[in-house]
Write a structure and sequence with these properties.
Chain A: This is Branched-chain amino acid ABC transporter permease. Chain A: Its main location: membrane. Chain A: Keywords: Amino-acid transport, Cell inner membrane, Cell membrane, Membrane, Transmembrane, Transmembrane helix, Transport. Chain A: InterPro entries: ABC_transp_permease, BCAA_transport_permease. The complex is a heterotrimer. By secondary structure, chain A is mainly α. Chain A is built from eleven helices and four strands, in the order ααααβββααααβααα. Chain A has a two-stranded antiparallel sheet with strand order 1-4. In chain A, strands 2-3 form a two-stranded antiparallel sheet. In chain A, strand 2 and strand 3 form a beta hairpin. The longest helix of chain A is centred in the N-terminal third of the chain and has 31 residues. Chain B contains 15 helices and two strands. Chain C is of the alpha/beta class. In chain C, helix 4 links the parallel strand 3 and strand 4. Classes of the chains: A mainly alpha, B mainly alpha, C alpha/beta. Chains in contact: A-B, A-C, B-C.
Chain lengths: 292, 322, 393
């Protein structure tokens, strides 16, 4: 039993990383129906920005966090303006390819500039471990899970309760109609990217601190998993990303713990496909009948 | 319409001219071994892009799992030709790989093609990863992560050329047949197609299977030409590479896919000396092209002799895009 | 109409087959550098893609070695020119680059690639063009072997083979650590890990109590380690690179697992101390080709030169690639020829090449005959090295 609880905790901490990234994926998708493949790489940039800030400026963690979020938010908005905005009326797949190309670009610029090797992240906060019997949980795990939960609630509030959120929802349903109502879709979309990328930046910093290792390819695997997680939970639905991320983390860990770790990823995908067959729009997704 | 119509004969002549042009260039050493590898790479990519274009461009279903089907063909050829080192075994492996890929596509397609858009994309991505992980784990047969090496070289550029040609003819004819038109109707408006009695699921499935079979053929050539295969060659990234070609050329344009495979192959050749900078330049070029030519190089247009001879050939027999 | 098109297809297909004359992959008598020109040496590594972390350090070291040699007057007065390409961690690309180097760039020797797969794909092109191809780090046992069990005449490596190293580590676990129960934690999608696991399992006298796997790009190993914690064992074998080894050591020690951890040469990068954090680098044993803090003046030169050029400590990959350039230099000097086929003969007969990763010659399978040294790390410090003769075969 203790082992099971410990594995559950392990799963939650893996899952909260996915959730953190999936939140950004799902938000952008919710507004402009774009799978922003570069999202995982913005998270990587966030990790590197905070890394260099810690090393060179030696600021405290909260200032670093704020600055990192600012930088990645700025980057996200610039990417949107330069690469995605011109494609808003193009086939969706064109925008998808652009996002993939953007992801390659960010990765390889970083490989070129900072080198491809893994670096260790400076240990700013002493990582305490709490133990209860044989179960242990450390401070960073709590931080990770806490942050993703808080961010999810915050995002949900922004989207559901604020005026900006109302505008976001309006743009998501029908950008043209929203424009006629006096909403500037460009502002809303920029705001979405700003929010999503700031989140990714924060995620990068937290994960860097937690695992103590960063490299230019670090966004690729979690990015893909987070995308799967977002779809799993119902892409476009904010709590869905959270649920999807945590579930995928837990499933992965449980297969490693009690099944055959060699086929872990295969089983994760199989479960995902089965869920999609039963609920074609993901766990929490609303199934929209296509308009005739 | 006659078999030896002006159109068919013209195409035949053009193809043969192309073949002999390449052949003599090889013979006189103008196409050296280096160009030859580039050529084969282009031909393999051409087959992959055409097959995926049928799925994505014609039936309108976003598939992110093309690499999985390519892996099936590659391993069929690898396993069979290492076992029995003969040209016959290579040809058999082409068929076995295609059959197997077709069956897997059928099994995968029946449940998943009911999914829509991005959900389908994730499901196909998942299946292709499952195929890859199975290959990794069937070590007895596939040698696991280390993969197969020393696969005998039966495929050369001529084989690749011939197979690419067959795939193009197959897919081009398919898209112009009545089933093909029904498939295009699904892409344009699935609901409308359904309401006029098109069994959309059935046509999507056929396109998916044909796409899978061509991917398997490409995999077989890859295995037999390069002699080395391992699971890390058939990841998500490979599927994305093919998708890039399809979109770059024009979704729904076979001419586009052919041109994109050639153009990206040549671009790659010229960028090779740039080392690590190459991928940066490549992604920048891709972004710029997408921004300035969002429908790809060709959109849904095709280069067609029929159009050139349009006075003599009735559009009904060749289709308005043919 | 469909029928007719089909017929057309079959027609053209058969025409192609009938007329297809085999042009084959033509070959000459290798490449030679003109006497008044620079000697071209190819450098083909994984500069981008999944293995870029290992490819870049090697490409850097190759360039650095060439610069050093040129500063000292080149090889018998001739400068070396490094032609560098990126294999993108891809087999087809490696094959294309090897052909480009050997048929276009007049390379008389090629160094790279880092990975087993791209190496396998490049070897036929090297054989065909009769230009030696030397991989510093392709470890799979069968890389250099052709389908009939013979050796590819133009392929070499300067790193350990899996069986050599896996065997040495198992022997060390048996004899020096007195271990009777081992667990293995590796990435089963990496041929490096699976190869080492296989050899270790074969040579280990005790029992392998459990084998845990993780996947590429993973950096949370708590699930696997929690499993391991519940089993009774004496040693953990981690057949991976420092990028995985560091976090594994970190998480294992944080969890309270303090049994010895055994690693392959992939641990040989000092970043592992930061990744694991120094206090956790305790009771760690790993194989190595060279020791950063060695007193050997050549090693010292190499380390300080590398730091100066690239602002970071070299790892064992860099060391191996660096040696490979000097190996080619020695082969050219000994044969007195810049013809690639002659250089190949020179490489085959090279005796006691003294590099920073050890003194070695090639055996009949073109694998280096080296001793394995195993470094012991206690409390964040390297406290000793022991040389092990693996009892394989």
């Amino acid at each position: 039993m203790e082992a099971f609880i410990q594995q559950l905790i392990n799963g939650l901490s893996v899952g909260s990383v996915y959730a953190l990234i999936a939140l950004g994926y799902t938000m952008v998708y919710g507004i402009i129906k774009l799978i922003n493949f570069a999202h995982g790489d913005i998270y990587m940039i966030g990790a590197f920005v905070s890394y260099f800030m810690f090393l060179n400026l030696k600021l405290n963690i909260f200032v670093t966090l704020a600055l990192t979020m600012f930088v990645t938010a700025f980057l996200g908005v610039v990417i949107e303006k330069v690469a995605y905005k011109p494609l808003r009326n193009s086939p969706r797949i064109t925008a998808l390819i652009t996002a993939i190309a953007m992801s390659y670009l960010l990765q390889n610029i970083m490989i070129y500039v900072v080198g491809p090797e893994a670096r260790s992240f400076p240990q700013i906060v002493q990582n305490k471990t709490y133990t209860l019997g044989n179960i242990s949980i450390n401070q960073m795990e709590i931080w990770l899970l806490g942050t993703s939960l808080v961010l999810m609630v915050l995002l949900q509030l922004i989207v559901q309760k604020t005026k900006m959120g109302k505008a976001m929802r309006a743009v998501s349903i029908d950008a043209k109609a929203a424009e006629l109502m006096g909403i500037n879709p460009n502002t809303i979309i920029s705001f979405t990217f700003l929010l999503g990328s700031a989140l990714a930046g924060a995620g990068g910093l937290l994960v860097g601190m937690y695992y103590n290792t960063i490299d230019p390819m670090m966004g690729a695997t979690p990015g893909l998993k987070a995308f799967v997680a977002a779809v799993f939970g119902g892409i476009g639905v904010i709590p869905g990303a959270m649920v999807g991320g945590l579930l995928i983390g837990i499933i992965e860990v449980m297969i490693s713990a009690y099944g055959n770790s060699m086929i872990r990823d295969a089983v994760v995908y199989l479960i995902l496909i089965l869920i999609l067959l039963i609920r074609p729009s993901g766990l929490l997704g609303k199934s929209n009948k296509e308009k005739v | 319409m006659k078999l030896f119509s002006k159109l068919n004969i013209s195409w035949l002549i053009i193809t043969l001219l192309g073949f002999f042009a390449i052949d003599s260039l090889v013979y006189f050493g103008i196409i050296d071994p280096y160009y030859e590898i580039t050529l084969v790479n282009i031909l393999i990519n051409m087959i992959l892009a055409i097959g995926l274009n049928l799925i994505v461009g014609y039936s309108g279903q976003l598939s992110l799992g093309h690499a999985g089907f390519m892996a099936i063909g590659a391993y069929a050829t690898g396993i069979l030709t290492i076992e029995n080192q003969s040209m016959g075994a290579f040809l058999i492996s082409l068929v076995v790989g295609s059959l197997f890929a077709g069956i897997v596509a059928l099994i995968v397609g029946i449940p998943t093609l009911r999914l829509k858009g991005d959900y389908l994309a994730v499901a196909t991505l998942g299946f292709s990863e499952i195929i890859r992980i199975l290959i990794l784990n069937m070590t007895e047969l596939t040698n696991g992560a280390a993969g197969l090496s020393g696969i005998p070289f039966f495929a050369d550029w001529q084989t690749a050329f011939a197979l690419a040609l067959i795939c193009i003819i197959l897919v081009a004819n398919y898209t112009r047949s009545s089933i093909g038109r029904a498939t295009i109707a699904i892409r344009e408006d699935e609901v409308a197609a359904e309401s006029v009695g098109v069994n959309t699921f059935y046509y999507k499935l056929i396109a998916f299977i044909i796409g899978a079979v061509t991917a398997s053929v490409a995999g077989s050539i890859h295995a037999s030409y390069f002699g080395v295969i391992n699971p890390s060659q058939f990841t998500f990234d490979k599927s994305i590479d093919v998708l890039i070609m399809v979109v770059f050329g024009g979704i729904g344009s076979l001419t586009g896919s052919v041109v994109a495979a050639v153009a990206l192959g040549i671009l790659n050749m010229y960028l090779q000396p740039f080392g690590a900078l190459r991928v940066i330049i490549y992604s920048l070029v891709l972004i710029l092209i997408m921004i300035f030519k969002p429908t790809g190089l060709f959109g849904t247009k095709e280069i067609s002799l029929a159009k050139i001879f349009h006075k003599n050939s009735k559009p009904i027999s060749e289709g308005k895009e043919g | 109409m469909k029928m007719k098109k089909w017929f057309f297809g079959v027609m053209s297909f058969s025409t192609l087959f009938i007329t297809a004359c085999s042009s084959g992959r033509g070959g000459e008598e290798g490449n030679s550098a003109e006497e008044d020109e620079a000697i071209n040496i190819g450098s083909m590594f994984e500069l981008t893609g999944s293995a870029s972390a290992y490819g870049n350090t090697q490409a850097n070291a190759v360039q650095m070695a060439a610069d050093e040699i040129n500063e000292d007057g080149g090889i018998d007065g001739q400068e070396i020119n490094i032609e560098e390409y990126d294999t993108q961690s891809d087999e087809a690309e490696a094959s294309s680059v090897a052909t480009r180097l050997s048929t276009r760039d007049n390379a008389v020797a090629m160094i790279g690639p880092a990975l087993t797969g791209p190496m396998q794909a490049a070897i036929p092109n090297a054989d065909e063009a009769q230009v030696p191809l030397i991989s510093p780090s392709a470890t799979d046992d069968d890389v250099l072997t052709d389908e009939d069990g013979g050796v590819h005449p133009y392929a070499y490596r300067t790193g350990f083979t899996n069986s050599f190293q896996g065997g040495a580590l198992a022997t060390f676990a048996n004899d020096d650590l007195d271990a009777s129960k081992a667990v293995i934690l590796g990435d089963n999608s990496s041929d490096y890990a699976t190869g080492l696991t296989e050899e270790f399992t074969e040579a280990f006298d005790g029992e392998i109590v459990s084998v845990e796997n993780f996947s590429e790009g993973q950096n949370d190993f708590n699930a696997e380690l929690t499993n391991i914690e519940q089993t009774d064992f004496d040693v953990i074998f981690v057949p991976g690179y420092y990028e995985e080894g560091g976090p594994i050591i970190n998480q294992a020690r944080e969890m309270g697992i303090d049994e010895p951890i055994l690693g392959p040469d992939g641990f040989g990068n000092d970043v592992i101390y930061d990744l694991a954090s120094e206090e956790n680098m305790d009771n760690i044993y790993h194989t190595s080709h060279f020791v950063l803090t060695s007193d050997d003046p050549d090693t010292q030169d190499f380390v300080s030169n590398y730091r100066e050029n690239f602002d970071t400590d070299p790892d064992m990959f860099a060391g191996l690639a660096y040696d490979t350039v000097y190996l080619v230099k020695q082969a050219i000097e000994e044969t007195g020829s810049t013809n690639s086929a002659d250089i190949n003969a020179g490489l085959e007969n090279i005796e006691d090449f003294a590099g920073i990763t050890g003194t070695f010659s090639f055996d009949e399978m073109h694998d280096p005959i080296k001793t394995v040294s195993i470094i012991e790390v206690q409390e964040g410090e390297e406290v000793g090295t022991s040389e092990v003769e693996p009892d394989i075969e």
